[in-house]
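Please decode residue identities from the backbone states below.
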């Protein structure tokens, strides 16, 4: 009596759905990016966490000192000054980064012509392709003694208003803060605009029938329904404020005059690659990480957003 031969069950790495490669090949291809992620992201982060508790200079063995670096930071006048500068600079940047792009997004959203709306969005995106270093160098020229700002004030006869904008203690920090004027950043505007266009038309029509004015629609409908976008921009902006120091480094090189434009990110960089105090720099980086992590968790807890579903 003939018996039907039994086919052996394929191992898991050889199984595949119709039209798909074997699972083994998929996992093998995923192995490379995972290895790169571990080597270039996770291992440096773990190393920085460990070395934050050590006295580590390049070319010398790391010496465990526990909380020594953090105690030194607590009594470090330059680091404390950098925190004050960060608070002043961050408050200004935080305000303009979240308000002005929202106003611009509202203006684009209320344009009647789709063609003009598209042109406005393209105009906002185009500056994003310019490297940030180029923008900072242009602003460095604007603030120079022979720059556009000085020439403009001279043409208006306002000679008393002319300063060494990046070298005077009274104007250096504000000059750095004003880089990027008029602050209509394309990314922020597009995030807000995407949230506005996602508002259901039925809600807007109901508000219009109820006689809600244009400012009322902005405050009572637009803002509550784009809290998800607002929360995203709050977190991204805070990360940029705390971690960013490129503009200050290019404009002032060392956080000068004195330490009037010093921020923790720049102080971390200088300690690590100029003063060769890598352990001290790692401690500053760890404090920045803890602050950003705490801030992100608090924002997610305090700003509650719910996705709108028709009929709710």
């Amino acid at each position: 009596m003939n018996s039907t031969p039994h086919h052996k069950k394929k191992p898991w790495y050889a199984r595949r759905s119709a039209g798909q490669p074997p699972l083994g090949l998929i996992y093998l291809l995923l192995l490379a990016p995972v290895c790169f992620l571990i080597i270039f992201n996770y291992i440096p982060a773990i190393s920085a966490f460990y070395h934050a508790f050590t006295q580590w200079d390049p070319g010398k063995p790391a010496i465990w000192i526990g909380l020594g670096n953090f105690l030194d930071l607590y009594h470090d006048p330059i680091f404390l000054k950098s925190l004050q500068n960060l608070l002043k600079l961050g408050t200004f940047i935080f305000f303009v980064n979240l308000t002005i792009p929202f106003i611009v997004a509202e203006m684009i959203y209320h344009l009647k012509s789709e063609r003009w709306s598209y042109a406005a969005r393209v105009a906002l995106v185009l500056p994003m392709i310019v490297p940030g270093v180029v923008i900072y160098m242009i602003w460095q020229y604007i603030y120079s003694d022979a720059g556009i700002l000085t020439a403009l004030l001279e043409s208006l006869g306002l000679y008393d208003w002319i300063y060494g904008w990046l070298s005077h203690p009274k104007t250096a920090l504000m000059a750095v803060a004003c880089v990027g004027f008029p602050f209509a950043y394309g990314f922020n505007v597009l995030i807000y605009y995407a949230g506005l266009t996602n508002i259901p038309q039925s809600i807007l029509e109901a508000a219009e029938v109820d006689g809600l004015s244009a400012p009322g629609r902005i405050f009572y409908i637009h803002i509550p329904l784009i809290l998800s976008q607002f929360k995203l921009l709050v977190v991204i902006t805070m990360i940029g404020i705390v971690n960013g120091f490129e503009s200050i480094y290019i404009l002032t090189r060392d956080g000068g005059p004195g330490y009037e434009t010093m921020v923790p990110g720049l102080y971390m960089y200088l300690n690590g690659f100029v003063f060769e105090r890598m352990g001290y720099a790692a401690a500053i980086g760890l404090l920045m990480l803890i602050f950003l992590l705490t801030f992100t968790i608090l924002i997610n807890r305090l700003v509650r957003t719910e996705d709108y579903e028709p009929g709710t």
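Observation: The chain has 14 helices and two strands.
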